[in-house]
Amino acid sequence: MKLMTSKNFLLIMLLASLFMAMLLIHGVVKDSAIQQQTFTSGVTERNEGRAISGCLSNIPEWVRDPHSDTLGREFMIGSGGLTDKSTSHKYQIMYHRYMSPFLMRSVKPKFRMLEIGLGCGPTGGMANQAKPGGSTLAWKHLFLSSSVELDLHVMEYDAECASKWEKENPGIATKVHSGDASSTHDMDQVYHSSGGLPFDMIIDDASHLNEHQIFTFLHMIKYVSKGGFYVIEDIHSSCRSWNANTGTTYTGAKVQGTDGCMETQTGYSTIFSKLVEWQKSLVIQKSPFPDVTSIEIGFQAAVISKEY
Fold it and tell me: What is the largest distance, in Å, between two alpha-carbon atoms of the chain?
C-alpha cells in the first residue's frame, strides 16, 4: 500500500473545503429565499388584511352584524323614536335578512329606494306620535357610513303634509313625491320623476287598506330591479281592522280585516289571501310575476324578491 503524498493530501483537503463552501452558500441562498418568500407573503397578507379592513370600514355596522339587534337600535336612533318598525313590528329582522347580503355583495354606487307613506295622519304622524317622517329619517341615518349612496324617494298621499315635511327636513330624502297609491297615473309619475330607473327596494307603508296593498303591488312590482325586493308592511290588515292611513284628514275608512284573514268585511280578497295564491304558483315552479322567485311572509309583513 502506498502512503498518501503530501500533495495528494493537500488536494483532497482543498476539494473538501470547496465542497463545504458550496454547501454553505446553497444553504444561505435557500434560507434567504425562504425568508424573502415569508416576508413577501407577510406583506401580501398584511396588505390584503388592510384592504379587507378598508372595505369593511365602508360597510355600516348594522350590515356587518350577523344578527338584527344593531339594525333595531339604529332604527330608533335614526328616527328619534318616531318609527315603530323595530319596536312593536320587529321589522328589523326582515330588513336585516334582505338588505345586509344585498349591500355586502352590491357593486352599485347607489341603493334606489321608494317608501310609499311618509306617515302623515290626523295626529300629525304615526299612531301616538306627533310627527311624520320617522322612517325616512331612519333610512337616511342607516346609510350615513356606507360607501353606497342612498337614493331615497318617498310617496305621500297628503300633499300639504308632504311638502311641509320636506321643507322642514332638507337633504333627508332625494325627493318627497305627492300622489295616490291607488292611482296608476300617480305611481307612474313618481317612478319617472325619480329618474325612471328600477328601485332596489319598494316599501308599501301607506294606507294599509287591503285593496290598496294589492293594487299598488300589482302595478309597482315591475319597477323593482333584478335582485331587488318589494316589501308590504302591516299585512295583519287581513286579520284585523283599524282606521286606515289616509293623511291628516280622517276619512272614516277602515282596513276591514277579519278573523279568517282571507276576506275583508265586505267579502273582497285580503292581501294575505293574494300572497298565498301567489305562493302556490311558486310551489309548482311558476313565477306569478316576471323574475319573482320568492315570497316570504314574516312578522306582519311580506317580502317579494326578484332573481339576480
Answer: 127
What pLDDT is recorded for position 106? 81
At residue 297, the 3 state secondary structure works out as strand
Q: What is the mean pLDDT of the chain?
A: 88
d(CA 298, CA 115): 19
Tell me the domain boundaries of the chain.
1-57, 60-306
Most confident segment among 42-46, 68-72, 126-130: 68-72
Closest residue by Cα to residue 179 from 212, 210, 132, 201: 212
Evaluate if residue 285 carries a pLDDT over 70: yes
Give, in order, the Cα–Cα distances in Å from 20 to each of 10, 14, 25, 26: 15, 10, 9, 10
DSSP class of 268: P
Which residues are CB-contacts of 243 (< 8 A; sequence separation ≥ 6)?
250, 252, 253, 254
Closest CA to 194 of 214, 163, 173, 167: 173
* CA within 13 Å, CB half, 247: 15
Q: Which amino acid is at 2?
A: K
Closest CA to 278 of 252, 302, 243, 308: 302
To the question of pTM greater than 0.85 for the whole model, the response is no
Worst-scoring range by mean pLDDT, 7-16, 25-34, 62-71, 204-213?
25-34
- How large is the average pLDDT for residues 160-173? 96
CB 127 within 8 A of CB 121: yes
What would the CATH number be for the domain defined by 60-306? 3.40.50.150
